[in-house]
């Protein structure tokens, strides 16, 4: 069949008309998609907004005019953790391509919310949105004070006293030793107990408890250590059963002596020996005798593999011998181990071991500057802040020098670098500021890690800034005020500040750890009175040992 030209043109026109009618009705060729989102006029590359105010204005732009009737069922704002829906108000503008939504009630502070726009949203031509839109919001800090303002001295008293409860109220009922953490049951820690002993001395001196009560608790601890706790060549394991004294393995092969943890314990016991110094009180005389027996019983030089090496080793196992094979090398938290090993009355190490193993004949030096601050020793940016805290609960770094460093410069630089890193906040984590800083080993969301500038996931540990008080008194006090007044409803609990928090992930720990709570009390006290520094540095064997390693300080005279 043939068709003349006018007929063909008519048919084509008819088909074209039918096509236009079909496109107008459902518009299958229209592309309906989301273009951009802003919260209070700000954009985000990954659709995540932090520090959002309680009544944000959220705008979303689309490629085509939006059908208003579909907004109520297709656009929602929910609290992320509870899925609770927040009622919204909607406004369309710019030819109905710009949607503005606002919550009808203020959002909660420090809370994560999600804005979702579902594909059920239609354009005015009945085209469905091409995909789900999800926008993450985290609201800002509620900057109101959570507690009444008090003087800084009163706040320092309060923080020390409340934190002390971890060791006093929560000490193991049988042994008196410090539990590893608030959920550890019978698991007690040798190093954390050393910190707790120093906390008890502080509490007696501050009149939080009586001298007799403090003495009685220390007698319980030392009697348990002498008569029940497992020892290996005089050294204690990292963890023990607080009821029986049996070793609890820290890891498979770490089931025997831990020389560094033993050092922390001895640091505390020697400090207590110097404090309870009565020449007439029979209980204080007996306590000193017990401490001396424990102290003299540690075979320090045996941990050089019975003198076969110039390295001092961290672990020994009755089942795996020296398999852990971890030399105690600097720069890290273990300077106290070498100081005490050199100070031993019975089994001292030589300066050669200190130079070759700890200092690695100078290879522990750094010498670089970070944020214009020169760091004498250790890894880039200094590592976690406990490096400048654990050994220096007793060792006074003021005017302390040897071949390798000025230790006041070292610890102050380390703390200032950590503070400046957090204040600078190169990774853009929520909350980091001059008020909120401090990276060290602590719990984190779903685990535990040694946080520092080279291992930073947004987790702040209150112990980091607070235990730096002697080195950064202004910055640490500023952090304390922020933690207490601004975050107090989240992190201030029955045993002081919780172990850590992450304001990016809106996570707050519910844990307390002995090795983090203890330094808070002790280092605040060292800043306030120098109490623990003065006591530990008064030990005659410590003076002799440190001089033998080449240290100089007015405190060693």
UniProtKB/TrEMBL annotation:
Glycoamylase-like domain location, by residue? 327-540
Q: List residues of the SbsA Ig-like domain.
A: 50-122
Q: Where is the signal peptide?
A: 1-25
Keywords linked to the UniProt accession? Signal
Q: Where are the transmembrane segments?
A: none
**Which Gene3D superfamilies does the entry link to?**
1.50.10.140
Name the InterPro entries for this protein: Glycoamylase-like_cons_dom, SbsA_Ig
Recorded protein name is Ig-like domain-containing protein
Can you name the source organism? Answer: Fibrella forsythiae
